[in-house]
Design a protein that fits this description.
Length: 354
């Protein structure tokens, strides 16, 4: 848990994360042993492996990072499947919803993936065939999408986030995310322990990381399994991992994300719609302190309210419109001029109670 005077970020090879204040160093003194510079320790092995594969060290490093990202997503999907009593390969049927549309019925079995994407196909959640066979408007699809997720977790909808957004809005965020794929978001903590005598509010910082997984094919009602697939004009599917910064500092790439947000673009071309799905990681130990704080009773690693707050800030910092110049400047500074990045300025744009 971090106070307003105790923010620290882990140095990385990229300028995304740097130590931001000497106060952070003092705060974390003694919490961890001497740090090992893995870049130097394994530099010779990386160089040799890169030469064997005919690649640069930077290319090899990026491939290894992407493989680790996919491993984390796959692990999270397996944990979610265990918590809901389903297997990763078995699509879950949508429960009945107030809307009588057949699109809310059991989704069609998903075809085996031909790519290495760790993202669960939209066809395993939504019955795309019914959506196309009986024409649905974007508004009707949005209602069905919300109704499906509201039916989860015994009708409470807890553990999930859902939304729909116009493809134009998503494309704007995607363009920004491709340049600036990482950022930090503070979440207020009212009951956190702070320095004695301090009247400043406390915050827990979350590292957010975008991942891009290619463009899904445009859904078709032809029913011909031998039909030649056409190049997709859909935008890329993307995921965003939210991991507590302190957790990431201690475990780096092995840290468990507390929230995974997926943007499904399958219906972008046909309906001008992108479907957002957020999955909160179930708690492995409900008795753990500060886990699933709030109304979720320890069932999840993150409360529903905090998950919604993180999702809201994605649009606040990645959707650049009139009036968002200061937030855009913070995101740029975080990557391009980290020495000029002021986390105190960040709080002005993330604290809705101020």
């Amino acid at each position: 848990m971090l106070s307003r005077h105790a923010l620290s970020l882990v140095p990385r090879s990229r300028p995304a994360l740097r130590t931001l204040s000497s106060a952070a160093v003092r705060y974390n003194a003694g919490l961890s042993g001497p740090k090992v510079n893995y870049e130097e320790k394994y530099a010779e092995k990386l160089q040799r492996k890169a030469q064997e594969q005919g690649k640069s060290v930077e290319q090899l490093r990026m491939e290894l990072k992407e493989q680790e990202r996919q491993r984390r997503l796959q692990k999270l999907k397996e944990e979610n499947s265990k918590s809901t009593g389903t297997s990763p390969e078995t699509p879950r049927a949508a429960k009945s919803s107030p809307d009588p549309s057949p699109a809310a019925s059991r989704p069609t079995p998903s075809v085996s993936r031909k790519d290495s994407s760790p993202v669960k196909p939209l066809s395993s959640i939504f019955n795309l065939d019914k959506i196309l066979q009986a024409p649905h408007t974007p508004e009707q699809i949005s209602v069905l999408w919300r109704a499906y997720h509201e039916s989860r977790s015994g009708g409470t909808g807890r553990g999930f986030l859902c939304a729909s957004l116009p493809v134009e809005t998503y494309q704007k965020m995607l363009d920004v995310a491709s340049k600036y794929p990482r950022f930090v978001i503070p979440v207020p903590r009212e009951n956190a322990q702070v320095e004695e005598g301090s009247k400043e509010p406390a915050y827990e910082f979350y590292l957010m990381e975008w991942g891009f997984h290619g463009s899904p094919p445009e859904p078709s009602t032809s029913g011909d399994p031998f039909a030649q697939s056409k190049p997709s004009s859909n935008p890329q599917t993307s995921t965003i991992l939210f991991t507590p910064l302190q957790e990431y500092k201690l475990r780096t790439s092995f840290a468990t994300p507390y929230l995974v947000v997926t943007h499904y673009t399958d219906l972008a071309k046909t309906h001008g719609l992108v479907l957002l799905r957020g999955e909160i990681t179930p708690s492995a130990a409900a008795s753990s302190p500060n886990v699933g704080a709030g109304e979720d009773g320890g069932r999840y690693m993150l409360s529903q309210q905090d998950a919604q707050l993180l999702a809201i800030h994605v649009q606040r910092f990645y959707l650049w419109n009139e009036g968002s110049e200061e937030r855009a400047a913070l995101l740029k500074a975080f990557h391009e001029t980290p020495a000029d990045f002021k986390w105190e300025e960040l709080l002005k744009h993330t604290n809705f109670s101020a």
